[in-house]
Amino acid sequence: MGPLDHYLTYGRREGRAGCREDEADAARIRRFNSAFYIDRYPDVAKTGADPLDHFIERGLPEGRLGSIVDSLEADEPAWQPSPDRLCLNASGALVRVSSQPPSWVSKPDQRDVGPMVSIVVIAQGVDPAKLVEGINSVIDQSYPHWEIRLLYAGGDEKPERFKPEDFGTLEARIDVSKLPLGSSLAREVNAAVTRANGSVLLLVDGADALAPHALHHFVKAMRAETQACVCYGDEIFIDADGNKIEQDFKPDFSPEYLESGMYLPPCVAMPRSLFLEIGGYRENLAGAELFDLMLRVSASKAAIVHIPLVLSRGEVANPLRAGPPQSSSLKALSEHLKASGRGGTVEPGLIEKTYRVRDAIPAGLPVTLLIFTDNRSAALGERGTINLYDNFLGSILRATETRCRYRVLAVDNGNLALRQHERTETTGGRVISHKQEAGARSISQGRPTSA
Prior knowledge:
Layout: H1 3-11, H2 23-30, H3 34-40, H4 42-47, H5 51-62, H6 68-74, E1 84-88, E2 94-98, E3 117-124, H7 128-139, E4 146-153, H8 166-170, E5 174-178, H9 185-195, E6 200-205, E7 209-210, H10 214-224, E8 229-238, E9 244-248, H11 255-258, E10 268-271, H12 272-277, H13 289-298, E11 303-315, H14 326-340, E12 345-348, E13 355-358, E14 367-373, E15 377-379, E16 385-387, H15 388-400, E17 406-412, H16 418-426, E18 430-433
Parallel strand pairs: 3-4, 3-6, 4-5, 8-11, 14-17, 17-18
Antiparallel strand pairs: 1-2, 6-10, 7-11, 8-9, 8-10, 12-13, 15-16
């Protein structure tokens, strides 16, 4: 098949680009979501057309949106990088460079009355060049109402003439605090948040950079919620040369998933009042302060919202990407269980930096084990043919003999033998038989398992 025939038959539908001009449309086709498209455009559902075919043939030319990502991006304001940049000169000193932007470049609308975003940047041992890049990503934001509270503790690699306090000298919206040697990070972060002026707090690692519309999307998501709202987005990882090597698309928030390990990015937005209300960062949890904070947020009444857009980027070599230290994480999880009144234990998971929470089961808790069966048998290779119900009941008796109070409730279609009824009843269990009518579905049909 020739290249043109392949593109017309398969390539376009698969979201492949036929030429450079097609790349944007190809990306929109790759992330197309049929449910989103039909829900947003009822007229498409009425036609009975295949949603993807309709989107390719008519939706794209008409400017229709094919996914939630398209919808979010369509709302982004006009943006151009700021003409004012911070950079390191040849001797390593921090300087400001300004250029005259073209006349057609629009500036952010300062009249857009929105909440002030206080960005707490935690820079411990961060390469000054990476820190400058991250600060510039804030200066470049399309959302104009922000301030930075920079907490800086340099490493041995810093240029001799680099002075972090110059950030505040060159940009009035930046407040710089040096982290004293051996100081408590939790105490310093809490103090910075207390001094902040914004109603919205954004926690950022000093080695990371924000996408141009990150603040816009954080503020929009928080405005859409009627209750306190904590937001996070997706991120990309880059190597030391700045090349994109990995994309990390986060799932929607799950408190159970969070208890298995810190999967949220270091870049998290929340109301400043919520941070202070739940106690901020706690001490004696070195490296797991954010994990501990988010566990307490998950136990609060705050909504936790995932924004399905790449809102930050960071180096894959950043130690934060590997997750917080195990000892601190286990301590945070144990205290989380205790505070929630659940009890139980926490242990390391099978994969590094993951954890397993075993909730406490009250002593003597009665348990009913429900079995749906049509009393079939199965051939299991060298084990020969076994009766599935007998095998299942036997495994229950062996596994639960001394662990809890239980009873078996078996629901069959009249096929269990008398001896199987008697064996079930000797355990304190019961069999309920339902005669199957002609043409009716099997009692086990559609079940994940049957015995």
